[in-house]
Design goal:
heterodimer; A: mainly alpha; 7 helices; globular; B: mainly alpha; 63% helix
Amino acid sequence: MRLPQIVALYVGAVFGTGVLLLPGLAAEKAGPASILAWLSMSVLMVPMAITMELLSARYPSAGGVSTFVRQAFGDRFANMVGWFFLLSVPMGAPILSVTGANYLSVLLNWGEAQTYAAAALILIVVLTMNMLFRQPACCSGVSSAGKQ
Amino acid sequence: MTHLSEEFVDPAKNAIRGVLWSAGLVALLYFSVAFLTVATRSYGNGISAASLSVMIQLTPGPAGGWIVAVTALFICISSANAYVGAASRIAYSLAQEKVAPGFASCATAGSDGRPPGRRFCSQ
């Protein structure tokens, strides 16, 4: 991958699902002040992003974060990274489903029950697809959901 | 994202430049959307979770809302799918290393006994 593809992948992974949900929620909690929160986040994320990229430049591997942790702290902690990811799935996957359903519900004037029914349907479809085909579409979007 | 670094041409140079460009772009995009969400008051009263749709309907009307809704559905389903798929791949490799119960391996291995994912997190 060259620079434009790398940038496109990063932006897609980080921006993809977040933009559907986060600006609205932040605005609801903080009102106009949420703009300040976004500004400070833009600055605060730079050190972490650079750390991750320096690490991935030094240890190019498909293992991502768990590879770096394995290098620094050994297998035990690398496996813990895996467990943390697993623990995030029961939260992340339903959030994604509800987000998708909300976009339908705003258009169709659904009530809460219908929205959550649609979200459950999305989740069931995804789980069924994975159980039947057992071949995940590859990774883009995963880390945006996992928020690293 | 870091797990894709293996595929980079010239990782040393491109990883850093890639992240700087991306961070700048993402910050700009998020800031613009957040700013417009506040400026158009597309939040509160149960619409915050779909404020992008509310905002886009301000100009082209319901058609814009449908485009956003269908796109949002695609994005959410594909992300949820990638997420669940990646999780099963990780559960499998944890089971292989004997740090997860063995059933995780049986539950996620394909019919040929191989792990479900092809690329994600393969060491």
